Amino acid sequence: MLLYQPDKVLQERLPDGDASDLGKFVNAVEKVCTDHYATSNTPESLAMVVAVKPKSKARFWFVSSRDTPDKDFDALRQKLAKIPVPKVVSGPVAFAIRSSIAGGDPKKPCDEVPRRKEWLDAIAKSKVPLVAPDGVLKVIWPD
């Protein structure tokens, strides 16, 4: 798992600086994904970018080594939407999980920090500098 914010920011955004609920959420996300892909035999490298916002909102983006249309992840998103979202305050918490499915290389197609094309497009089109994740999320996932 890769966190998009430094520890100081995370401590401010997690109630009482306690990451236990976020940890449970991450474990549940990983379990849903593992179960979802358990019978897959097509090699794929998949990164999932996850953002959690105040008011118990979560959103999931996928970066795949396969040329997979975004709508093909809808069934997985529906399963992930059933996971209780941890409480965050004062701003979003974002992280990425890289994985290997059926022997796919977990580092492809991602660089060190998985970036969804939608995020890169928002940064490129912005007239002001956008810092990921906060600035990008304001553009692509406004309240």
Q: Oligomerization state of this entry?
A: single chain
Strand composition percent: 15-25%
Give the number of domains: 1
The largest pleated sheet is described as:
4 strands, antiparallel
- Uncertain runs are none
Q: What is Rg?
A: 15 Å
Give me the strand/helix succession.
EHHEEHEHH
Reading side by side through the largest sheet, how are the strands ordered?
1-4-2-3
The outline comes out as globular
Average pLDDT over all residues:
87
Count of beta strands: 4
Protein model, in words:
Helix content is 33%, strand content 20%. With 143 residues, the chain is α+β, with helices and mostly antiparallel strands. The protein has five helices and four strands, in the order E-H-H-E-E-H-E-H-H. The model has no long low-confidence stretch (mean pLDDT 87). It has helices at residues 7-13, 20-36, 74-80, 117-125, 134-140; strands at 2-3, 44-53, 57-64, 93-101. The chain has one domain. It is globular and about 40 Å long.
Layout of secondary structure:
Elements: E1 2-3, H1 7-13, H2 20-36, E2 44-53, E3 57-64, H3 74-80, E4 93-101, H4 117-125, H5 134-140
Antiparallel strand pairs: 1-4, 2-3, 2-4
Helix pairs in contact: 4-5
